[in-house]
Amino acid sequence: MVFNQGKPPSTEGCAVPTIGVLALQGDVREHVRALEAAGATARAVRRPAELEAVDALVIPGGESTTMWKLADSFELLEPLRLRIKNGMPAYGSCAGMIMLADRIEDGVPGQETVGGIDMTVRRNAFGRQVDSFEADLDFAGSPVRAVFIRAPWVESVGSGVDVLAATGDRIVAVRQGPLLATSFHPELTGDTRVHEYFVEMLREL
Ligand code: GLN
To answer: Which tens digit of pLDDT belongs to each residue from 152-198?
Structure first.
């Protein structure tokens, strides 16, 4: 993937991707910090023009019904769908995973997502059992300490989706082409491996 198209070039020969963090609600600052630690340039995205100017997007944790309604009123829902349909890489954590799901269970009536990943995600699935917990996971071959907060899990995936992590028999991280999603919050642990995986993924696309 070629970065920085239409924008001032970064240091020649060493393209640094500019990754937006959807900043309608949720833990935006933590993602910005983790992305910069992983070698990317990160900036908040609130407006359609800001979305246009980034190479990729992180959709943070927060609350998916609030995020959906804010995305709708900021006129970002359709631009988000369009960019994802056109291949923009994106990473969604927790509420962001819900936003990237083609299908959701236990949403509020009428709840919409951006979609892109052929999966069914059950909202608040772990939350019904315990509000928050931590677990050591194998994430795509690396050990990761995962923090779950009223987290969703993935009920089912289509054949084009790779499962990157599970806890017990519950799927908690997936990838479909340029789209990555985790039920947990790697931005809260200071361990930047998941963000590094995303940045590396962009370089390989
Ligand atoms: N339960 C929240 C939702 O439905 C997600 C929680 C989170 O992002 N930590 O959006």
So the answer is: 999 999 999 999 999 999 999 999 999 999 999 999 998 999 999 99
Catalytic residue among 94, 112, 200, 204: 94
The answer to whether 91 and 181 have CB atoms below 8 angstroms apart is yes
| Enclosing domain of residue 184 | 18-204
Residue with CA at minimum distance from ligand 1 atom 5 = 95
Selecting among 31, 187, 195, 196, the annotated active-site residue is 187
Question: 142: Cβ below 6 Å to ligand 1?
Answer: no
Summarised one tens digit per residue, pLDDT across range 132-148 is 999 999 999 999 999 99
| 55 close to 89: Cβ distance less than 8 angstroms | yes
In a domain, 11, yes or no: no
Which CATH number goes with the domain that contains 39? 3.40.50.880
How many domains would you assign to the chain?
A: 1
Atom number, ligand 1, closest to the C-alpha of residue 98: 10
Among 121, 12, 6, which residue's Cα sits nearest to residue 52? Answer: 6
